[in-house]
Amino acid sequence: QGPVCTNLGLKPGQRLTVKGKIAPNAKSFVMNLGKDVTLLGLHFNPRFDAHGDVNTIVCNSKKVEEWGAEHRETVFPFQKGGTAEITFVVNQNDVTVHLPGHQFTFPNRLNLSVFDYFDTQGDFTLQSLSWE
């Protein structure tokens, strides 16, 4: 478990940029964005080799203990031992995830008007976090 941020106050039109280092022997890492730890609007989980997925980004949402349907992205711009810069842009109805050379959107299934919570877990060391 890495740092946990609360009271971010991210609203539509705002962005959160995350920079960090991926462990040399990474299996997977997670970034959660939501209202709090029980209401996750975006569970972002790049998997090098975990839960039967290889080089796949799995995204989901979570309401209390209930997970939604998994969304998979096969573009995988991450490298073990490398650095990563990921930007999450909050829109009215979804979140746009900007990766090196690729972007995709994930729907705001919980209809969150503000994203207050962010955390990282797994094989990722957070170096900087900025939002605007």
From TrEMBL:
Gene3D superfamilies: 2.60.120.200. InterPro entries: ConA-like_dom_sf (IPR013320), Galectin-like (IPR044156), Galectin_CRD (IPR001079). Pfam families: Gal-bind_lectin (PF00337). SUPFAM superfamilies: Concanavalin A-like lectins/glucanases. The lineage of its organism: Eukaryota, Metazoa, Chordata, Craniata, Vertebrata. One of its GO terms (cellular component) is extracellular space. SMART domains: Gal-bind_lectin, GLECT. One of its GO terms (molecular function) is lactose binding. PROSITE patterns: GALECTIN. Coiled coil: none annotated. Residues 2-132 form the Galectin domain. PANTHER family: GALECTIN, GALECTIN-1. This is Galectin.
